[in-house]
Automatic annotation (TrEMBL):
One Gene Ontology MF term: DNA binding
Name of the protein described by the UniProt record: Uncharacterized protein
Highest taxon, organism lineage: Bacteria
InterPro entries, per the entry: DNA_brk_join_enz, Integrase-like_cat_sf, Integrase_catalytic
Coiled-coil blocks: none
Any one of the GO BP annotations: DNA recombination
Pfam families: Phage_integrase (PF00589)
Length: 72
């Protein structure tokens, strides 16, 4: 099937990495994400998923906005 799609060197791990990135947008809690992806521990999950800088920055901004609103 990968030959028909002209994909070379596509492995299960490539697909798992891609799926983990997409699932991380749904399951933001790393423990939940680990359970969904089937990784044994957080360290093994970390091999497949690295947060994008933009996502981390957006989370920090959202947290700051919530903190500011709580103080008012």
């Amino acid at each position: 099937m990968t030959n028909k799609a002209s994909l070379r060197d596509l492995t299960f791990h490539d697909l798992r990495h891609e799926a983990t990135i997409h699932l991380a947008r749904i399951y933001t809690n790393p423990l939940e994400l680990r359970r969904v992806t089937g990784h044994k521990d957080i360290k093994s999950l970390d091999r497949y998923y690295q947060s994008h800088t933009e996502d981390l920055a957006a989370k920090a901004i959202a947290h700051e906005k919530r903190s500011s609103a709580d103080k008012e």
